[in-house]
Amino acid sequence: MAKPWEGRFSKKTDRMVELFTSSIDVDMRLYAYDIQGSLAHCMMLAKQSIISQDEADQIIQGLGEIKREIEHGDFVCDHALEDIHMHIENRLIQKIGKAAQKLHTARSRNDQVALDIRLYLRDETTNTINALMELMGVLVDLAEVNINVVLPGYTHLQRAQPVLFSHHMMAYYEMFKRDADRFADSFKRTNILPLGSAALAGTTFPIDRDFVAVELGFPAISENSMDAVSDRDFIIEFTAAASICMMHLSRFSEELITWSSSEFNFITLPDAFATGSSIMPQKKNPDVPELVRGKAGRVFGDLIALLTLMKSLPLAYNRDMQEDKPPLFDTVDTLRACIDIFTKMLPKLEINQEVMYNAASTGYLNATELADYLASNGVAFRKAHACAGKAVAYAIENNKELHELTLQELKLHSKIFKKEIFDFLTPEKMVERRESYGGTSVTNVELAIKAAKKALGKLSTPNESTAPASKNGKKTGKKT
């Protein structure tokens, strides 16, 4: 198999080297983006009279046929051709001959692969944001349906104060909203055209990079050719955002696992999203959230792999960078699978409302109410805190909850207590009184749900291009 660089070498490439350096098994998924970029490059070459229009027409037709061959499973791969770029070019030469050999004029595989990855990641970033929006919508629906459900809020995994289940779900909504924002922000730095940088120094041909930017929907063009072919920051940034998102999914998974245990029994996972034991017939295992929790580490590893890959590379392109795609593709696939399965699973959760309420009614979760009551009646908060603490100790010693103490027993710790204190000690009242902005009161959470529904209805995702429209209605690339 002829190599594009064979003129420099006197011996054929060793078959072991061909197998070792081949990436076609990995980068085959970029075929559509490689063809998309080649079509735009070809049209630009013809526009600039670098190739003839007849040659361009042959190339365009040939690339279309190759795309259909790949999609129909009729395309044959050979490790001797290394990557998707050489496979498509070689097949094009077989199809149309000499004209195909001109397609690579004024470009290098270095800027070609940089373009392919940006086109790919641009689409996948948008897909990820859309998937997150769907998950956020599920959380909002879950919160709205369960607006009056109360459960213990925890700190240090100890019961702390009653909160609304809806407030808890909306906390994850906020996390995923930040994730979507991070992906949208990283999209801006992905959406930059590198093609035209050639190997590292640009090209001597009179190319029109603005034309290519318009054709491919890029609003900006890379400013430095050396940076453009060696930049993988945008991949690392996507993977970093994905790692944070997976961390959020892992935290959520941990709570679902804990809540579904016999010890908590706050929720029941749907049978369709759980598995059993091969030896213990009674078991119902939370395998889906456990796997999501486990896959978080996998995505973290992808991020570390990319950072380690890039940390010592001199300018410009180095073959090490061929290894950027396996962790990127793995991150994209893993994150999407985890988001999608959560989106399908959460609406089917069974919320054990009575168990949650009973848990919120025990464990002295109303101790802060005692302290707040005293503080609102003129007692310095630190002194009020100490009084409430002594009341808790007294209640523990007498095997009672705070709301089970008599007024006389409460007065042992402060004469300020009056009968009205008992109106403050129910879970409902404790939740209702948390009216500070962002707090867990029903009114606040209902407003948060309303705002979230409005935001999801209006929230836009990055389009294929965010470039401004030109006078002819097309997008115009601008240098950045």
CATH topology of the largest domain: Fumarase C, Chain A, domain 2
Order of adjacent strands in the largest pleated sheet: 3-4-7
* Poorly predicted tracts of residues: 464-476
Query: What portion of the residues fall into strands of 2 or more residues?
Result: under 5%
CATH architecture descriptor name of the largest domain: Up-down Bundle
Summarize the structure in words.
The structure is a single chain. With 480 residues, this protein is mostly helical. It has helices at 15-21, 24-27, 31-47, 53-71, 84-96, 109-145, 165-190, 209-216, 225-230, 233-259, 287-310, 325-345, 353-360, 367-376, 381-397, 407-411, 427-432, 442-458, and strands at 150-155, 158-164, 192-193, 220-221, 267-268, 350-351, 478-479. The protein contains 18 helices and seven strands. Helix 8 (209-216) links the parallel strand 3 and strand 4. Helix 3 (31-47) crosses helix 8 (209-216).
Note the main attributes of this structure:
480 residues, mainly alpha, Fumarase C, Chain B, domain 1, Fumarase C, Chain A, domain 2, Ribonucleotide Reductase Protein R1, domain 1, three-stranded parallel beta sheet, two-stranded antiparallel ribbon, 18 helices, 7 strands, elongated
Quick overview:
This protein is mainly alpha-helical and 480 residues long.
Task: Itemize the secondary structure elements and their pairings.
Blueprint: H1 15-21, H2 24-27, H3 31-47, H4 53-71, H5 84-96, H6 109-145, E1 150-155, E2 158-164, H7 165-190, E3 192-193, H8 209-216, E4 220-221, H9 225-230, H10 233-259, E5 267-268, H11 287-310, H12 325-345, E6 350-351, H13 353-360, H14 367-376, H15 381-397, H16 407-411, H17 427-432, H18 442-458, E7 478-479
Parallel strand pairs: 3-4, 4-7
Antiparallel strand pairs: 1-2, 5-6
Helix pairs in contact: 3-4, 3-6, 3-8, 4-5, 6-7, 6-12, 6-18, 7-10, 7-18, 10-11, 10-12, 11-12, 14-15
